[in-house]
Design goal:
The chain is of the alpha+beta class. It has a single domain (about 1-140), classed as Cytidine Deaminase, domain 2, CATH 3.40.140.10. Helix content is about 30%, strand content about 25%. It has four helices and five strands; from the N terminus they run ααββαβαββ. Strands 2-1-3-4-5 form a five-stranded mixed sheet. The model has no long low-confidence stretch (mean pLDDT about 90).
Length: about 140
């Protein structure tokens, strides 16, 4: 398990050097979240070339829920003068299917981002890969953003 954790950290660090312009790149930059036992919500801030600025943890919840308020999500984006951001959270169960709460939050964040003129690149749920499915769910790829 330690070797896997080290491998995930190394892959995440490598992923941060390239533009985070798609769900797979965002997922790889947040592989450390696969091992979390609590749901964690984080914002990945990006510059105008969609390169990594920083990650900010917004909330830490329970094994199946975490609360994130839009103002807490937008605050770091505004403070760091970022061009855009990706919202990322994990599902400790490993299942990457979005909940109704995930869908509602994504819609609220997309609306707020349009008003604030901050690029909301994607909302990615990190979980476990199953058979031929990747270990993440992308709202952008699913046409929900």
């Amino acid at each position: 398990m330690a070797a896997l954790a080290i491998s995930n950290v190394a892959e995440a660090e490598h992923a941060l050097s390239a533009p985070l312009n798609n769900a797979e790149a965002i997922y790889k930059a947040n592989l450390d979240m696969k091992g979390f036992h609590q749901e964690v919500v984080r914002v990945v801030l990006l510059d105008s070339q969609l390169r990594y600025i920083t990650k900010v943890e917004i909330s830490k919840g329970t094994v199946n829920a975490s609360f994130a308020w839009p103002r807490e999500i937008f605050r770091p984006a505004i403070t760091h003068s970022s061009f855009g951001f990706a919202l990322v959270h994990n599902h400790p169960s490993g299942c990457v299917s979005p909940s109704d709460a995930d869908l509602r939050l994504t819609k609220r964040i997309a609306s707020g981002a349009r008003i604030l003129q901050i690029k909301f690149l994607d909302h990615v749920i990190v979980g476990q890969a199953i058979a031929d499915r990747p270990g993440y769910f992308s709202f952008q790829e699913a046409g929900l953003l």
